[in-house]
Structures are given as C-alpha cells and as structure tokens.
Amino acid sequence: MTFPHLRQDFAASVVVFLVALPLCVGVAVASGVPAELGLVTGIVGGLVTGSLRGSSLQVSGPAAGLTVLVFEAVREYGLPVLGVVVLATGLLQLLMGALKLGRWFRAISVSVVEGMLAGIGLVLIAGQLYSMAGLKAPASGLDKITGLPGALADAVRSTEALVSLGLGAGTVVVLVLWPRLPRRVRAVPAALGAVALATLAVSVFGLPVARVEVHGLLESVQPPPLDAFGELGRVGVLGTILAFTLIASAESLFSAAAVDRLHDGPRTRYDQELMAQGAGNTVCGILGALPMTAVIVRSSANVRAGARTKASRVLHGVWLLLFAALLPAALGVIPLPALAGVLVHAGWRLIPLREIASLWREHRGEALVLVVTAVSIVAVSMFEGVLIGMALAVGKTAWEASQVRLDVIDKGAGPVQVYLSGNATFLRLPKILDSLEALPQDRPVELDLSGLHHLDHACRTALETWSERHSAAGVEPVKITPGH
C-alpha cells in the first residue's frame, strides 16, 4: 500500500492532535467523567471512525455540543449507564446508515440545528463560568444562568475563587487575541497555547487552583456491566439515547457539509459517514467512554494544515493513544479553570450571532425558530428543546405551504361565483369559512375547487357542512365544481 501524500498528512495529523488534546480533556472534565475518557473517545474517533469511509477529511472525537447532555445523563443515571447509552446510540446510527437515512438529516431545518447549538452554547458557557470560579454549578440550564449573579458575589468574597476566575478569564482573553498574534506564534493551536500559558502561570506563581484529576487510562476504561443494560427499560434513558442519536448525527452530517466546502477532494457519502460515526460510538460505548461526533474545529484545522487523505485523522488518533499511554501524568498539571475558559470560548463560538442577525433581516420566521429552540433548551432540556424547535419548523413550513386564495364574483344577480385556488389545509380553514359564511344567505352559490392543488380532509368536510347549511336556507343547492 502506497501513501502518496504521507508527508502532508503526517504534518496535518500533528496539528490536529495538538488542537484535539486540550479539547478532549476539557470536554471530559466538563461532562463530569474522568479526563482520560475524553482521550479514549478521541483515539476511537481517529483509529476507528477515521479509518472508515464517509468523509475523507472530517475528524471525530468528543464534542462541546454534547457536553451538557452527557453531564445530565451521568448525573441522572451514573457513569456505567453512559456506556449503555453511547453503545445504543452507535447501533442506532449503524442501522440508520444501513437504511440509507443519512441524507435525510440534511432535511432538518438549519435554524433548528443552529438553535440547538446556540442553546448548548449558552448552557455550556453558564456552567463553565462556575467551574472557572471553582464553584459547583446548579443542575438545570435556567438555574445556571439565573444563579450567575449570586455565584459572582460568592466569588468576590473568596480569594481562591477570584484567582481561579482570573485564570479562566485570562485563558479566554488569550484565545480571543490569539488570531492577532504573529504567524509564528499562531502555528501553535490557540487552545493548546492558552492552556500551556495558564499551566505555566500556575506553576511559576504557585496559584491555588484545582487541577485535572489523573485516574490512569486503564483504570478509567470501564465497560458497562450487564446490570446497566437493565436501565434500557426506563423512558428517560430511551429519551437520552434518541437525543444523543439525533444531535450527534445531525452535528456530524452538518459538519461534513461544512468541511466539503473547505476542500476540493472527494465529497462526503452521508450514509457511509453515519455508519462510520455509528461504529465509533459503538466502540466508545463498549469502552464506557464519551459519545463522539464530527468536530468542525478539528476538521477545519485538518483541512487548513494541508491534509489530503484520511491518513491524517488516523495518525492523530495514534498520537492521542501514545500521549495517553506514555504521558498520562502530564494531565495532572493542567489547571481546571483554564479548561473551563477553553470551553467558555467554544460555547461562545456555538452561538451563531451573525446568522441570527441575517435571518432576522431576511427570514424572520427562521430566526424565530432558532431563538425558540435555543430558549427551550435553556429553559426545559436538550431533548425537549430540540423537539420543540423541530415542531415549530414543521408548523412554519406547513403554514407557508398552505397558501390559499378565495375570489368572490358577485354580478348582483344570479349565482355568486366562488373560486378557491392553492392549498386548502386545516391551517387556513378559519379564513375560508369566514369568507364563505359572509356570502348572502338568499343567493345560490357556485363553488369552484378546480384551482386547488391540495384539499385536506378537514377542509373537505368543512366545505360539505357549509354547503349543506347554505342549501338548507331555502335557496338552490350549492353547485360544487370538484378539484383535480
């Protein structure tokens, strides 16, 4: 087997490894699981998903987009059940890919997906602000946000909390300013540079902040025990599996579409990519690790670094494995506020502020779907918020599709002529009936439905009922010209 682009792919794999390392650890810590499990998911994303067909340059691993949901699942059901949930998610993705349902995820409203990411971003930022100050965050998204003023007041009264908060805030500032630094400095990925600077500051000044707890790779990998599979009978667990599957699949396939716009290589095969994600999540579930998705930050870094084939993402998994096996103690020097700062920055980037402004100017209905989805996720929960957003998007589409026109021609004598055209659905029924009931009761009516493209059952029944009532008033029966 020859590797004609090994030089470019090797260089790109090192860049992706350096980008992925702090994010894998940060996502794991924010999810309430051992840091090593984030590395395990990154390793599986490289070695398993990375070696399969689908999207040639897309890189998979633990994602900030699932952090909130994973944290809730671990808090509610425990770490052993997380493995069962991730395993079931992977098997569902494999099934959907085999049934060629991958392309259908492209039909999900972009506003719903962006609203989902915005809601996740808001909850993630709120939760990590507590971590930056070394405080315990409330459970619900709404409580996280409303409790921030009180948390800030508590932090101001504690020197240690202020130091911790300052280190996290400094990390965010470094991440924001990193793109403006000289090109040689920018060769180091922003997240890695910010975490390295924070670690150096803690070491030099002896700052009293919490650090990552090191458990060891083999100790952290705990396949789910058989009794954890009994939790599959709980409605909440099944709902969590559906939420994982929907969000992980949608995020991966939308990421694939974005990555395809960054390069001129082979296009993504969506069903195969969904199966590749499913295979990765199945392995992650067996190992008791975090769920994976394709990650746009790592994927875009892979493309910009000059990757040409999937060898780069496989090699990045190899580097993560070597780091986890040979240098696990290095995790123990990383300050937690710095990782929280990285995730606050990542959460901010999930909020599509420009898209919201653009949608508000051009498509206010889509902007409303986006905002309602985000607010629902914050106020209720991830799964219900996404369902509310999807229901609103479907309702909006149905409303826009059910355009109907009603023309009345009354020549003063003879029958009143009524022409209906367009799509007559129950959504427009009140408007139709108001117009028909306003017609003169003592005149015959000719109702022409030939211009209708669609007439649903509710409208047909209502028109027949109105016709019978009008005919019972002692005038000639309503003459109806049927549609196509």
Written description of the protein model:
With 484 residues, the protein is α/β, with parallel strands linked by helices. The chain folds into two domains: 6-351, no CATH class; 404-481, Transcription Regulator spoIIAA, CATH 3.30.750. Helices cover 63% and strands 7% of the residues. The strands form two sheets. The chain has a four-stranded mixed β-sheet, with helices on one face. The protein has a two-stranded antiparallel ribbon with strand order 1-2. Strand 3 (404-409) and strand 4 (416-424) form a beta hairpin. Helix 4 packs antiparallel against helix 13 (270-287), helix 5 runs parallel beside helix 18 and helix 18 packs antiparallel against helix 19 (382-401). The relative contact order is 0.18. The model has no long low-confidence stretch (mean pLDDT 90). Keywords: Membrane, Transmembrane, Transmembrane helix. Pfam families: Sulfate_transp (PF00916).
